[in-house]
Design brief:
The chain has 301 residues and is α+β, with helices and mostly antiparallel strands. The protein has 13 helices and 7 strands. It has 3 domains: 187 residues, Gyrase A, domain 2 (2-Layer Sandwich), CATH 3.30.1360.170; 67 residues; 35 residues, no CATH class. The strands form 2 sheets. The protein has a 5-stranded antiparallel sheet. The radius of gyration is 24 Å and the shape is flat. It starts with a helix and ends with a helix. The model has no long low-confidence stretch (mean pLDDT 91). It catalyses: dUMP + (6R)-5,10-methylene-5,6,7,8-tetrahydrofolate + NADPH + H(+) = dTMP + (6S)-5,6,7,8-tetrahydrofolate + NADP(+).
Length: 301
């Protein structure tokens, strides 16, 4: 399980405390504060703190003339306009801080988004837990034959069993060696900062991750995409549900124009116009590469 009894008790204590505030709060986020949302076999995501709401976005956008005439409809329309035209600064007025527990190889993908504040669990100071990500059988897949970054058919039978056993035994053996190198029983023991180097990339780490809404949307646009690696996508999916409770108007606009939308090149737009005009366009006459043509056909059918 992602949480130990002691960690759950700490969360219960945090949720039992209540503080009066004059700042904007969101009921959906208040309900989520400190709660752990389980991800993968040992991972979690939980909200530690947040700042701002949908109104903070429109307030920033309207700063030149104050509140003016406003209503829910006006707020929604303004937020959709900002999202549609790629305005970023108003969305930066909202921030969220998450506690995330995740496998190291997922963390190394995640950290490529360099627009957040991160403080990670230190294996120089502390001993890592014996927790490793072991994929469920349905997520054990062969290398894709058409995508160098993706997966192909799911492994089955003896091959799947062999791979699972290898993953488990390698992780256990590495941790046994990690513990023995740290041991103080009659020996000096290796420094933690050196002993950790023998651990595999599926060991779990954790961090506090603070990011503004604009950069969070960029993260979600890439990592909640169906083509993203499964192990990071499930974290993005959980965060999407959290953001939906936090800033529902902004999330709806994000879903409309980013997650559910498509961006076309100038050549692709010209191809679509030719098709609308009744011209029969093929890949050979389109001016697009085979891959670009395939992506366009995926959008327009």
């Amino acid at each position: 399980m992602p949480l130990s009894p002691e960690q759950q008790a700490d969360i219960d204590d945090q949720r039992a405390e209540s503080h009066q505030t004059l700042r904007a709060t969101v009921p959906g986020m208040e309900a989520r504060l400190y709660r752990a949302h389980e991800v993968l076999d040992h991972g979690l995501v939980r909200v530690i703190d947040y700042m701002g709401d949908d109104a903070a976005i429109t307030q920033a956008a309207r700063v030149s003339y104050g509140r003016g005439t406003k209503s829910v409809q006006n707020d929604e329309g303004l937020i959709r306009y900002l999202m549609r035209h790629w305005h970023s600064t108003p969305f930066e007025m909202c921030e969220i801080k998450l506690h995330v527990k995740l496998p190291v190889f997922v963390a190394r993908q995640w950290i490529r988004h360099r627009t957040a504040n991160v403080n990670e669990y230190s294996a120089r100071y502390s001993v890592l837990d014996r927790e490793f990500y072991i994929p469920a059988p349905e997520h054990l897949a062969a290398q894709s034959s058409i995508n160098n970054q993706g997966r192909g058919a799911v492994l089955e039978g003896d091959e799947a069993a062999r791979v699972l056993e290898t993953l488990k035994s390698d992780a256990d053996r590495a941790y046994d060696h990690y513990e023995s190198m740290l041991s103080q029983d009659g020996q000096q023991g290796l420094a933690r900062e050196l002993a950790r180097m023998n651990l595999p990339a599926n060991v779990y780490t954790q961090w506090y991750w603070k990011v503004d809404l604009h950069n969070l949307f960029h993260f979600l646009r890439l990592r909640a995409d169906p083509h993203a690696q499964y192990e990071i996508r499930v974290y993005a999916d959980v965060i999407c549900e959290i953001v939906k409770d936090w800033v529902p108007l902004a999330y709806a606009a994000f879903e409309e124009y980013r997650l559910g939308g498509a961006q076309l090149s100038a050549t692709a737009v010209a191809v679509v116009k030719r098709m609308i005009a009744g011209e029969t366009v093929t890949q050979e006459t389109s001016g697009l590469t085979k891959r670009e043509w395939g992506e366009l056909m995926g959008v327009v059918g």
